[in-house]
Structure formats: C-alpha cells, structure tokens
Amino acid sequence: MTKAPVEDQRRLLDVQALDTRAQQLVHRRTTLPALATVKEIDGQLADLNSALVASRTAASDLRRELAKAEGDVEQVRTRATRNQQRLDSGAVGAKDAQALVSELESLGRRQEALEEVELEVMERLEAHEDTLAKLDEAHQKTADAKAAALAEVDAQTAEINAQLEVVQADRAKAVDGLDAALVTLYDKIRTQLGGQGAAALRGGRCEGCQLDMNQTDLSAIRAAAPEDVVRCEECGRILVRIKDDRPKE
Asked: Pseudo-torsion of CA 156, 157, 163, 167, nearest 10°?
C-alpha cells in the first residue's frame, strides 16, 4: 500500500480543487457560445457562397446571351441600313427596288422580334444582377458578423487563458513538496477517471462517486494507519480522510 504523510494527503484535496477548476476553464474555452455562433455563421456563409456561385454563373450566361441578342439586332439593323441606302441612291432598277422594299419590311419584322428577345434577356439579367447585389450584401454582412464573433472568441479565450495560467501556477505551488509517489498515483487515477483522482471521505461517503461505503470497507479504512493511502472500493479514487473518518487514536 502506498504511504504518504497525512498532511500531504490533505493537501491533495487542494490540488484536486485546482485541477477541477482548470478542467472547468478548458471546458468553458471549448464551449464558448461565440464558437457556436461562428459555426452557425459558417453554415450561412456556405449557403451564401453556393447561391453566389449559382447567381454569378446565371448572370454570366445572361450577359453572353444578351451580347448575342445585341449582335443579332445590330446585324439586322446594319443590313437594313445598307438596303435603305441603296434604295435611296436611286441607282437600282424598279425590280431590285421592289425586292429591297420587301426585304426591308422583312428585316423590320425580324429586328422587332430580335429586339423583343433582347429586351427580355435584359430584364432577366437586371433581375439576376439585383439578386446578385443582394447576395453580395448579405455575404458581406455575414462575413462581418463572423469577424465580430471571432473577435469575441479571441477576447474570451484570452481571458480564460489568463485565469488558467493563474490556476496552473497555484497548482504548481500546491503540489510542490508533496510526496512524489502520492502525486504520481493521483495523476494516474485522475487521467483514468476523467479528471478526479482524489476525494474526501466524509461521514462514511466518498465525495468522488457520492456513494456511502459499506461498514466492512469503512472499518478497514478506519483501521488503516494515517499514513496509508486508501482508495474507494467503488470508484478507485484516493480517499482523503476527514476528521470524523480518520482512525480513532
């Protein structure tokens, strides 16, 4: 059985309290509400990025479609202008003039139809560009919100880290001079049991697992020498015997 001075065993509870505080601070650092906010905003940004890609692609396609429609209208307009100039020059015969007039009428109808297509594409492009502008604005606002949330995370993390440094310094002082074998055993148990390696035995109850000890185990503990390091039969933690639970002199 491991042995350690009684006072060292009692001081182990102070070490445990500091380790528990450090564990709480680390947990708090990893579960900051602002971190959840950042994660939520990242989801929003992912959705906005997808929408932006789709909207930019649609707008780009419509710009190409509009350029083609404008080119088609310009081509018809150019041909109509050339025909009109030939007709106005008087240098064509009656038969050719009649053909030019007929073609001008056809070109006029064609131009009107193409201009309707051009207008329809322009309207669709305008709607997409309006949507794109709104998406860009929403993306910027969301990005700004993420930056603010990250700044909050940084500030809160810095504050917690400062507190953690104090606790760790206090822990180093608290463990200084303690029986080395006792500390080694405590650290091993603490690692195995998720952070708590020692607990007080008070009123026949282990304050680690919160279970009342049976009389046989309790009698054995009370019969042990004060320097004996005893452990809870239920949870395995080091039991630090408080006054009422120390062996009777």
From this structure: 150
Map out the domains of the chain as residue ranges.
6-27+176-244, 31-158
Q: What is the pLDDT of residues 52-92, one digit of tens each?
A: 999 999 999 999 999 998 898 999 899 899 888 888 887 88
Q: Does residue 196 come out as left (phi exceeding 0), alpha (psi in the -120 to 50 range) or beta?
A: beta
pTM: 0.73
Across the beta sheet with 205-206, the strand order is 211-212, 205-206, 198-202, 238-241, 230-231
Q: How many CB atoms lie within 10 A of CB 43?
A: 9
Contacts of 242 (CB under 8 A, 6+ apart): 200, 201, 202
Task: Give the integer Cα–Cα distance in Å for 45 and 146.
Answer: 9
Q: Which CATH class, in words, describes the domain spanning 6-27+176-244?
A: mainly alpha
pLDDT tens digits along 95-144: 888 888 888 889 889 989 999 999 999 999 999 999 999 999 999 999 99
Question: Can you give the C-alpha Rg of the chain in angstroms?
Answer: 42
Q: How far is CA 32 from the centre of its chain?
A: 11
CATH class of 31-158: mainly alpha
Strand partners, 240: 200
d(CA 44, CA 224): 62
Farthest-apart Cα atoms in the chain, separation: 139
Residue whose C-alpha is closest to residue 13's, from 204, 199, 209: 199
